[in-house]
Amino acid sequence: MKLRTLPLTLALMTAFAGTAQAQSLSTLYQAAKGHDATFKAVRSQYEAALAKAEQAKALLRPTAGLGGNLSESNLDNQSNAMGSGAFGTRSLSVNGSHPLYRPANLASFAQGMKQVDLAQAQLKAAEQELMVRTSQAYFDVLTAQESLSFVKAQKTAVSEQLAAAKRNFEVGTATITDTREAQARFDLVTAQEIAADNDLQVKRLALDQTVGIAQIKPLGLQAAADIARLHSGTIDSWVAQSDASNTSLTQARIALEVAQLEIDKAKAALKPTVDLNASYGMTRYRNGALPSQPHTNTATIGVALNMPLYTGQASQNRILETLALQDKARNELDAAQRNVAQATRTAFYGVQSGLSQITALQAAEASSQSALDANKLGYQVGVRINIDVLNSQSQLFQTKRDLAKARHDVLLGQLRLRQSSGTLQDADLQAVSGLLQK
Q1: Domain 103-270+333-433 classified CATH 3.40.50.10070?
Q2: Radius of gyration in angstroms for the set of CA atoms belonging to the chain, rounded to a whole number
Q3: What is the pLDDT of residue 224?
Q4: How far apart are CA 137 and CA 66, in angstroms?
């Protein structure tokens, strides 16, 4: 964990320490940013891209080096003309070079800047993906909690109906069939309660793993929450927005630009290069140099030109390769545009369908409640049997579960729609959190 993320993480851990308390969606997302390994890996990749961009800048900057040499020589001259003895040589030089014309370096530099843009788009995509993933885990827990609550409420109602059937059988106003039907329904709802409780535990573990905090209690959705107010715009406006801002399309466009720059690099292999070179060196001799070897100081400056004449067709075939890769990147961009447009339309219609489903389920809930009340009254006066009441109870609680899930699914669908359009941000999670219980 990097030092700059440590204070935030510690603060979140301190806030969540002790007894479990309810947390909002936006708060848990901030915790997930400091815990999720996938997101942190993308963030590290972004930091690596920044460092790599600086490497690309270095291709346009001068370079300098320092060199030295120390040697000892032993001269044994058989003639008396020059004498014998041990001699030492010491040399020191400074060399520098500055590129004046290197088109391949210019293309590499531009590619390095594009890689930073690509890493930024990838980081934004990872943030949006983490928002949706955290929201999915959050609402999965809420849905499982409400499902378990409804099953428990149904179990209580079935238990009361079972007790009533037993009393009526004992006094002779009902048959044993009513008691057995109620007992069978009670056994069934008990099994459903066990399954719902297990599902809730699994969903809680998934949320805990996502945000790195144990025993989370998500805030429930307000009963009167106006979910529809978060949905606006037309399908054409959402598709246009996705074409402009979707992170996948942004990455595909940058990949195409990088491929075009790769063509420039390949063509640069056939162009000359020009460098400015300069050096300064000193050479000294120990124990008296030979007459032919005086102390020297040498300064050199010049321009070096290198012109490739023949590369064995390697450069030409490299150009053909990069042209084919450019076509590949362009086709991938076209495919991404089609896929994003389709995904945006699907998400838009999913939200609209979900809102209509909520309206229908709200009406169905009211109708199911009326049907249950009527069946209870009919059972009391003898025109309905016990199974009618049990079926009405099951229908009501199933409708309540479906309504709760539909409300959660619409909120998730709205977040996915914004993710597809590339506009999903922290403010959207805060807007959803505003619909939760305080």
Answers
A1: no
A2: 38
A3: 84
A4: 59
Of 230, 218, 206, nearest to 146 (Cα)?
Answer: 218
Listed by start position, the domains of the chain span 103-270+333-433
Helix (H/G/I), strand (E/B), else coil: 437: coil
Q: Are 125 and 43 in contact (CB under 8 A)?
A: no
Helix (H) / strand (E) containing 23? strand 22-23
By the 8 A CB rule, do 176 and 182 touch?
Answer: no
- Please name the helix (run of DSSP H) or strand (run of DSSP E) that holds residue 65, with its range, or none: strand 63-75
pLDDT at residue 85, as a whole number: 64
26: CB partners within 8 A, 6+ apart: 426, 429, 430, 432, 433
CA-CA distance, 147 to 252, in Å (whole number)? 42
Give the whole-angstrom CA distance, residue 122 versus residue 430: 23
Cβ-Cβ contacts under 8 Å for 165 (sequence gap 6 or more): 174, 178, 179, 181, 182, 386
Tokens in use for 162? 């079972």
Taking CA 119 as the corner, what is the angle to CA 332 and CA 422, rounded to the nearest 5 degrees? Answer: 65
> Which residue ranges of the chain lie beneath pLDDT 50?
1-20, 289
Predicted TM-score (pTM) of this structure: 0.82
Residue 70, amino acid: L
Residues forming a β-bridge with 304: 275
Residue among 274, 297, 300 nearest 96 (CA): 300
CA 149 to each of CA 146, 154, 160, 202, 331: distance values in angstroms, whole numbers, following the listed order? 5, 9, 17, 16, 51
With beta carbons less than 8 A apart as the criterion, state whether 155 and 186 touch: yes
